């Protein structure tokens, strides 16, 4: 995709909390469900999204709704859509939105992993963008699939996916430095509005954040 590509405006939500988020366990492509806090985050995000669309004069029935097919994102999307009292188009579950794969590390606690295997957020530098765990992906792999997804992303769409996806989107859309996004904890219970090449976070329940996947 050309460097001149202009990203459309869109609304993004990270899925709600799971037990593995709370335990600081590598989650990646494992299909871990929302816990009760995550369900409440998703419900609140739906009300917040409805208010943002009303504020911006956007018809929710005219938008495309994209979600990762992993259940924690799919349920978050379904619970968000329940806040709307108008018929909405079907959700498009797109595998290009799946979380970064941590391969052999999935299911293990951050605290169990030594520095030769992986670094937790807060300890990474820009070179970590290229780090690929055994049988896993690196952030550049995720960037490639998100740039392909961008060809199908429509103006003012709603996207529900994962923390690693949001990190990469900040880099691709805003141009935020890799070292910054790699160490940034993507919040839950917020809507990230990407508009004009910038991200603005709108909080639903800003005390209910959980560690990144």
Mean pLDDT: 93
What portion of the residues fall into strands of 2 or more residues? 5-15%
Enumerate the strands of the largest sheet in spatial order, edge to edge or round the barrel.
3-2-4-1-5-6
CATH topology: Rossmann fold
CATH architecture: 3-Layer(aba) Sandwich
Oligomeric category: single chain
Query: What's the CATH H-level superfamily name?
Result: Phosphoglycerate mutase-like
CATH hierarchy, class: Alpha Beta
Task: Walk me through this protein's architecture.
The protein has 213 residues and is α/β, with parallel strands linked by helices. The chain is built from six helices and six strands. It has a single domain (10-203), classed as Rossmann fold (3-Layer(aba) Sandwich), CATH 3.40.50. The chain is 31% helix and 13% strand. The chain has a six-stranded mixed β-sheet, sandwiched between helices. Helix 2 crosses helix 3 (71-81) and helix 4 (139-149) crosses helix 5 (163-174). The longest helix has 21 residues, at 36-56.
Structure in a nutshell:
Helix content is 31%, strand content 13%.
Which helices and strands, and how do they pair?
Layout: E1 10-14, H1 19-23, H2 36-56, E2 65-67, H3 71-81, E3 91-93, H4 139-149, E4 157-161, H5 163-174, H6 178-183, E5 190-195, E6 198-203
Parallel strand pairs: 1-4, 2-3, 2-4
Antiparallel strand pairs: 1-5, 5-6
Helix pairs in contact: 2-3, 4-5
